[in-house]
Write a structure and sequence with these properties.
Strand order of the largest sheet: 1-2
Mean pLDDT: 76
Low-confidence stretches: none
Radius of gyration: 14 Å
Shape: elongated
Number of strands: 2
Distance between the termini: 41 Å
Structural class: alpha+beta
Strand content: 15-25%
Helix content: 25-40%
Length: 46
């Protein structure tokens, strides 16, 4: 089982892969220029 996903599809893809009964691979492209608000609040980014 394999899946290529975007941000809003992470949880459904993990649930589908975990429940498939076979090995699963979830591939997700990321934008290295964007950070979550939690990451930006860390001391190293201030």
């Amino acid at each position: 089982m394999g899946a290529a996903i975007t941000g809003g599809q992470i949880r459904p893809a993990l649930d589908k892969g975990g429940g498939s009964g076979v090995r699963a691979l979830v591939g997700m492209a990321i934008d290295r220029e964007k950070y979550s608000s939690g990451t930006m609040n860390q001391a190293m980014y201030k």
